[in-house]
TrEMBL record:
Protein name from the UniProt record: Heteroous nuclear ribonucleoprotein U like 1
Name of the gene: LOC101072785
Superkingdom as given in the UniProt entry: Eukaryota
InterPro entries recorded: B30.2/SPRY, B30.2/SPRY_sf, ConA-like_dom_sf, P-loop_NTPase, SPRY_dom, SPRY_hnRNP_U
Organism, as annotated: Takifugu rubripes (Japanese pufferfish)
Any GO MF annotation of the entry: RNA binding
Biased composition (Gly residues): 545-556
Phylogenetic lineage: Eukaryota, Metazoa, Chordata, Craniata, Vertebrata
Region feature Disordered, mapped onto this chain: 30-111, 499-617
Amino acid sequence: FNITCTVGGLFPDSYYILFLLEMKAEIKKEEEPETVDQQQQEDNHNSEHPSGREDTAHSDHVKAEGDKGGHYSRKRPYEENRSYSYYEHREEKRSRTPQPPAEDEEENIDDSLVTIDTYNCDLHFKVSRDRYSGYPLTLEGFAYLWAGARATHGVIQGRVCYEMKINEEIPVKHLPSSEPDPHVVRIGWSINHSSTQLGEEAFSFGYGGTGKKSENCKFSDFGEKFGENDVIGCYIDFESGEEVEMGYSKNGVSLGVAFRTTKEALAGRALFPHVLVKNCAVEFNFGQKSQPYFPPPEGYTYIHNLEMEDKIRGTKGPATKSECEILMMVGLPACGKTTWAVKHAEENPEKKYNILGTNAIMDKMKVMGLRRQRNYAGRWDILIQQATQCLNRLIEIAARKRRNYILDQTNVYGSARRRKMRPFEGFQRKAIVIFPTDEDLKERTLKQTNEQGKDVPDHAVLEMKANFTLPETCDFLEAVTFAELQHDNAENLLKQYNEEGRKAGPPPDKRYDNRQGGFRGRGGGSYQRYDNRDYSRGGYQSRSGDGGSGYRGGYNQGSYNNQNYYSNYNQYPGYSQSYSQTPASGQTYNHHQQQPAQQQQQQQQPQSYNQQYQQVC
């Protein structure tokens, strides 16, 4: 702004010159949008600063469109049928290539010990340094998600038990009051290659805090409800004839047998201790404690105390990053990417692929095994946006973990592919192109629309078609595989799509349309974002106008703490890898940032998960 004023005072035709300079600058910025960290910091500002916003977070999200953005804001149409691919499409063009993150250093644990397995758990389940307790991320949309974890070892014989205590129901005041059962734990046993969604697949047996048991998504009443500070005992008996029995106790009182299966059906596969939590912190006693919470029934042995030959080790993760693989799906919406990803993961169980996609996020938001889309009472588009934000954070976390991944997004923009692959430097990086015939694409799109509702607006699909490029092997892609139409046929059809998209012209709501000041980044007032954030801001990097302070200048709070958002989720006392960097005095599992003096005085007492949860990821 100061430079603009100076130049304007020096040249007679300064207004014309300035206009050309600003046009050039704006075009450059549209080509090089804000960084991932800046956008993620912006997305999470209200949650990062607990200055009285916690109780009103949900009401802010559902505020009427016309009430947001100030006098000059533009109303954008509320479309209930916009789904995850639409918001993914909006994110595709936003961010510059991030720097590769530092890899999390796994502490070496004695392989003979039975602990929570940091490889066989969800990315958003945080495990303690000693590997005997953990809790899920609860920031924003993560509070809707289940998070699961398995133990390192399973069993195939004997009478074996373990205990689980719910240490805390983490406050999640940002959830709507209509959210059913915001705090639940499901506990039980599962085979090694089942998903982390306990009780929702075959040979996955779970008893939940709502007083329900489930196996293969079949729910029925069992036992009692349980919650914070309750201790659930889990018992498995391989010595009752041809059947295997699984029973439970609550606070030392037997609840009886919940599940039976046959040894023939198990076919020699081990069953592993398994927990699935929603907004609860849990702790295990596998037998490592000097005293149990409650004495086990006669004849049962804690799994930790079994002989080594009687414990079956679960799948171990890759030893080095070079052994890890990430498969990037590439294709238009509804072309079949998710179908291919799920099938490939099922056909290669030894790889234990983590599918990173909004579909996978929505699967972790199920209620009683049912997806939310048909029975969700709130604003569906807001939930989808939160799911997309969760996915972005999980991708950042994933790049720090030695695992195998399938990135299930459209990835039709060449710049987006480079940006998304760069954090996974050192992985085996491959692209899987799903390019069906035009007839098949139309048929699949119609089927998805009938099953899930309108997914992506036509103008967004046309914009993707106009900008779609086929991936080639390069410095960030070691291999490219075409799963349906092969390269030459796909390229011929793509030329038609490119032409179709270009003829359709730009979408109706390009980023620079109808904003105060004409172009992005010049401040001067607030505006309405597609993702319903309602604060004011200026332009880029502290060039504030009347409406805000800009990305780096903070939102009416001075400068923003410009730190890497995802490198901090592991800075918790007692929690794995580099959590030891954080002093543990007077805190629970969460580490708080510096706060204003008045707030510091109010928070001298030990702090709960919710008081600190905003730094989790």
